[in-house]
Amino acid sequence: MVKSTKIWLIISGILLLALGIMCIANPEATLFATAWLIGCFTLFSGISRLVFTFRTERFLPNSGTRMISAILQILIGIIFLCNNLFVAISIPIVCAMWVIIEGVIIFIQSFDFKKVGFSKWWFLMILGIATAALGVLGMYHLEATGYIVAILIGIAIVSIGVAYLVAFTGIHKFDKEVTKIGNNIKDMLQEPKQENE
User: Fold this and answer.
1) What is the pLDDT of residue 196?
2) pTM
């Protein structure tokens, strides 16, 4: 592999590790940074959709509705960027609601598993109740939920950084093996020439 690629891989891994540790150490700042990224993503997504609408309005029908959707997305992105605190507060609420919904779905599905004769259906039912209960608990303790979300983001970033560093060591080892095999083949090809001389 190209040396510069390996260097970028190890630099990326180290930077991601540092960023992940910073996220875990500063959960509040992580939530605000995540909120800012959501705002940026929404804004740029709306802009790209608007550009796409302008370029394809001659060929694709309903360009008016796509244009309205794109403009709304741009406005939402601007609102998110201007109200970073609102988005940062919304992240734990959305996560808690998602956990509640998932818990209810698991609880309902457990009875479907019971109908088809799955003996451990009760385990799914308990998991569903526990998941929904954690979601409700998260709604009542949004600050703690926010910290947990931020720490999970940090852990995820650290995991990616570790994966990059592990990939670097694997690629480095693979490169060594390939070079070794190449040298062995070269030596084998040179031996007959020396014997002929």
Assistant:
1) 55
2) 0.68
